[in-house]
Amino acid sequence: MPVHEHKTCPRCKQPFECKVGDVANCQCSSFTFTAEEKKFIAERYSDCLCANCLKELKNKYVLFKEKYMS
């Protein structure tokens, strides 16, 4: 049986359900990150993030990259 964990997002402090035992149906599986984006997030957070924060961080990385790495 898949294991689901109730977590609190370390970024926004909102509760969410992590489906670590069923990753294909987890909220994070709807995102695709480049290696650079994964590194950007991993350098700041060591645990799972909610879908809203993942979306915001992906957008922030794109803006950061356009501003400082172009």
N to C succession of SSEs: EEHH
Largest β-sheet summary = 2 strands, antiparallel
Roughly what percent helix?
A: 25-40%
**Oligomeric state of the chains present here:** single chain
Calculate the mean pLDDT score and round it. 87
Strand order of the largest sheet: 1-2
- Separation of termini? 47 Å
Question: Which class of secondary structure composition applies to the elements?
Answer: alpha+beta
Please give the number of β-strands: 2
Shape: elongated
Strand content: 5-15%
In terms of per-residue confidence, which ranges show pLDDT below 50 for 5 or more consecutive residues? none
The count of helical stretches stands at 2
- Indicate how many domains the architecture comprises: 1
Radius of gyration: 13 Å
What does this protein structure show overall?
The protein has one domain (5-68). The protein is built from 2 helices and 2 strands; from the N terminus they run ββαα. The mean pLDDT is 87. It has 70 residues and is of the alpha+beta class. It starts with a strand and ends with a helix. 37% of the residues lie in helices and 11% in strands.
Main attributes of the structure:
70 residues, alpha+beta, two-stranded antiparallel sheet, 2 helices, 2 strands, elongated
Helices and strands in order, then pairings?
Elements: E1 5-8, E2 15-18, H1 35-42, H2 51-68
Antiparallel strand pairs: 1-2
Short structural description:
InterPro entries: Cys_rich_CWC. The protein is 37% helix and 11% strand.
